[in-house]
Amino acid sequence: MLFLGLCCIAAIAAVGSVFELTSGNPELGSTTTTAILAASIPFALICFYGAVRSADTDV
Asked: Residue 22: helix, strand or coil by DSSP?
């Protein structure tokens, strides 16, 4: 459950970063927003993988 929650938060951060970068004037600056985007995409994928692996398949 923790992995899935972290995955959702990271995915929201990635989508928000894309919108900020495409708006032309990111509030945190282009460098910081790009860094957030670059970190949140792999983190979301890793957390999603962890959530799938930790799911109970014996249900």
From this structure: helix
Distances (CA, A) of 30 to 8, 23, 35: 23, 11, 8
pLDDT in tens, 14-48: 999 999 999 989 999 999 999 999 999 999 999 99
C-alpha 56: how far from its chain's center?
Answer: 24
The size of the chain, in residues, is 59
Residue 32 CA: distances (Å) to CA of 22, 37, 38: 14, 9, 10
Rounded to the nearest 10 degrees, what angle do helices 2-23 and 30-54 cross at?
150
Tell me which residue has tokens 């890793």: 46
Confidence of residue 55 (pLDDT cuts 50, 70, 90): confident
